[in-house]
Amino acid sequence: MKQSTVKPAEGKLGIMVVGNGAVATTFMTGVLMARKGLTKPIGSMTQYDKMRVGRGADAKYLKYDEIVPMAKLDDIVFGCWDVYPQNAFQSAMYCEVLKEKDIMPVHEELEKIVPMPAAFDKNYAKRLDGDNVKDCKTRWEMVEQLREDIRNFKAANNCARIVVLWAASTEIYVPVYEPVHGTLEALEKAMKADDREHVAPSMCYAYAALTEGAPFIMGAPNTTVDIPAMWELAEKTKMPIAGKDFKTGQTLVKSGFSPIIGTRCLGLNGWFSTNILGNRDGLVLDEPANFRTKEVSKLSTLETILRPDLQPDLYGHGNDEDTQYYHKVRINYYPPRNDNKEGWDNIDIFGWMGYPMQIKINFLCRDSILAAPLCLDLCLLSDLAARAGRYGIQRFLSFFLKSPMHDYTKGELPVNHLYQQYTMLKNAIREMGGYEADEELD
User: Is the peptide bond before 254 cis (omega within 30 degrees of 0)?
Assistant: First the structure.
């Protein structure tokens, strides 16, 4: 074993969340309750998971904070931005994800979390109609105001370090546009020229965070940090970036179940996924331009696990061009369900001699209950990565994300296979802790 070279997690960790809705307030309330001993942070890998370090007689099973220095829940200070002015207590009550009895014990702390005006452009989320927004003449001014927010929050709360997490709505789809997104210089020029078509508000948050020395995590399927210009900025500022889109319900099932089909060498004719969802996320995704962003993210998972180019007999069937199985994803806005999302997967497989079979999965999940522990893990592990001197795309965080970042300019494919992602996660922590990486199953 080598000695860990990770800097200690000293002082307060400021977690600044973009968005103060269902996911954000469920995350914040859970952390505040857990550190008072009033609930347990179930679903959080950083709080519960144990991994093996060493082999044979030297093998030990340790929690993450026994291997590397992790920030503690007691060290976290929350801040946020939102287009609606309600504080975190008011928002948590309004969202109705959590029962009143699970919010009231920390209501005083939640009331103090008052959202700063958001950097917002209604063209990117037409269904949102809040007035707690910044008055910015250009995208560059948006960046400057956000940088000032981060600096002020850090100073006011005596934070040693900051992490910025996007837990806001999905923006309309922004295709990668090489003349703007290809280099940092081009992106900065576009921001200063107020190019609102190619520079999303989320890009301003990411730019501000990285420039202020804070890791940035993209929890929606937005293009934000998935562009070469942002990779260049992350390299320049020596900051970690992670994204995109929290892997909560249906895609978690997909990334865990599709390896069963692939490993068993069964064929796939089609996979139809549909959801009903009623929270603010569902409302925003009811807009076709916003759903397109989500659709691209959700569709990408299967294609890198069950690949027709590697197994044409098994996966080269189904659609009009007969190049691969048929894969369709739908999200339907259905207000009565609020945050309690329901996902149906209808999977048409075939086996020996081409005989057809079917698999049906019905996941009645709670969107924010699944997302909250991911928020905690992504923030703590991004902070860890920064202290370990890891910067740029954090591939080891793919486990938590629906559409993992990768360098597509070099033909790299994302790793979507859940168990390969888990190995990547464990090995990164082993290496940061001074242990050797290994591929053995525990």
Answer: no
Q: Which of 248, 243, 247 is nearest to 202 (CA)?
A: 243
Q: Give, for all 442 residues of the chain, the pLDDT tens digit.
A: 556 789 999 999 999 999 999 999 999 999 999 999 999 999 999 999 999 998 889 899 999 999 999 999 999 999 999 999 999 999 999 999 999 999 999 999 999 999 999 999 999 988 888 999 999 999 999 999 999 999 999 999 999 999 999 999 999 999 999 999 999 999 999 999 999 999 999 999 999 999 999 999 999 999 999 999 999 999 999 999 999 999 988 889 999 999 999 999 999 999 999 988 887 777 777 777 777 776 776 667 888 899 998 999 999 865 556 678 999 988 888 999 888 989 999 999 999 999 999 999 999 999 999 999 999 999 999 999 999 999 999 999 999 999 999 999 999 988 999 999 999 999 999 999 999 998 766 5
Q: What is the CA radius of gyration of the chain?
A: 21
- Helix or strand run (H / E) with residue 34: helix 22-35
Q: Is 81 helix (H, G, I), strand (E, B) or coil?
A: strand
Q: How many CA atoms lie within 13 A of 159 on its CB side?
A: 25
